[in-house]
Amino acid sequence: MGHPSADSDSLEGPGVILRRVMGLWRPRGRVARIFNVLLAGITLVSIAFLVVCVALKLYADPPEELEQIALCGLVASLCVGFFFKASLFMALGGTLRQTVRLLEDTRVEFFSGDNNKLTRRRYQKLSRNIYYYGQMVAVPAAIAWVTCPLLSRILAKTDQDHHEVQRQFPVPVWFPLDVYASPIFEYMYVVQSFCVLVVAECCISTDIFFVHTMLMVAAELEVLNSNLSSLGHTNLQTKKVKGEESIFRYKTYDRRLTLLNGVQPLGEHASTEDTVHEWLHEQLVKSVRHHQAILRVVSLLQSAMDVSIFILLFVNMA
């Protein structure tokens, strides 16, 4: 049995380093877990900080413009959804790690040739492309959100030189102090910008994990289907040569296995055919075990996504 892990990507999926830096992926080891709790706390506090900002703004100093009220409601609903999604991802870290470990064991145990390796690599490449596309959308959007107040203030200054333009934050905020005075404004602006980037990357890194895992399950299903199709195209041929001699060959769809490479006495024909039937039985049993392993992976993944998918739908509706 081959081991594809030597030349294959990690089944933890793209963005695994980012998830570890943000404390979303629980590492092994006591010291690493303590450090991970600290990183996870920073991530959750960053998301919650934006909720606190808009909540205080709506409660203590509600804006008069309808656009500002809608913006505060949008930020609050999105960040609340992201907060619960990140919290659930951290809480279900054991189940997610067990899913990855079971999927990795399945790939190692049921590795049966270069065709399977190419199929799995194709799905891994698709997963990486989806991750890159997500980053290409999320990162520029977050940067634009952060820099928009600065750009609007610069443009307003050039058009209206007769009065001072009020400073703006990426997210509306109210605190019982003058947050628009320097250097408090600069500090608050940097903190909010950091929090916005954390929210964007947290969303991408958690979503891509589930997408990647589902693609890896789809790859295993395609590998299983390919193996079963190969067995379905089995063609056993017996050719008699010189009366009491025969050649017995076994053919499959895109590969050929010669059981006897030379002349074989007719008396050994039955035993050779039994050997082939036994081999076919072993392959069928292996395919059944492969299917059962896939079902276990799907069951674990479903248990982790039951609540997360509701949060995802809630955030997308917002």
UniProtKB/TrEMBL annotation:
<dbReference type="GO" id="GO:0007165">
    <property type="term" value="P:signal transduction"/>
</dbReference>
<keyword id="KW-0807">Transducer</keyword>
<keyword id="KW-1133">Transmembrane helix</keyword>
<dbReference type="InterPro" id="IPR004117">
    <property type="entry name" value="7tm6_olfct_rcpt"/>
</dbReference>
<keyword id="KW-0675">Receptor</keyword>
<feature type="transmembrane region" description="Helical">
    <location>
        <begin position="66"/>
        <end position="92"/>
    </location>
</feature>
<keyword id="KW-0812">Transmembrane</keyword>
<dbReference type="GO" id="GO:0005549">
    <property type="term" value="F:odorant binding"/>
</dbReference>
<dbReference type="Pfam" id="PF02949">
    <property type="entry name" value="7tm_6"/>
</dbReference>
<feature type="transmembrane region" description="Helical">
    <location>
        <begin position="130"/>
        <end position="152"/>
    </location>
</feature>
<dbReference type="GO" id="GO:0004984">
    <property type="term" value="F:olfactory receptor activity"/>
</dbReference>
<dbReference type="GO" id="GO:0005886">
    <property type="term" value="C:plasma membrane"/>
</dbReference>
<keyword id="KW-0716">Sensory transduction</keyword>
<feature type="transmembrane region" description="Helical">
    <location>
        <begin position="293"/>
        <end position="315"/>
    </location>
</feature>
<feature type="transmembrane region" description="Helical">
    <location>
        <begin position="34"/>
        <end position="60"/>
    </location>
</feature>
<keyword id="KW-0552">Olfaction</keyword>
<keyword id="KW-0472">Membrane</keyword>
<keyword id="KW-1003">Cell membrane</keyword>
<feature type="transmembrane region" description="Helical">
    <location>
        <begin position="187"/>
        <end position="211"/>
    </location>
</feature>
<protein>
    <submittedName>
        <fullName>Odorant receptor 82</fullName>
    </submittedName>
</protein>
